[in-house]
Amino acid sequence: MAALTSNVIPLTGVRFDDKLVAASAGGDTAPTGAGVLLAVKNGDASSHTITLVTPGTVDGLAIADRAVSVPAGQTFLIPVTNLYRNPTTGRASVTYDGVTSLSVGVFRAS
Question: Which end of the chain is less enclosed by CB atoms within 10 A, N or C?
Answer without folding.
Answer: C
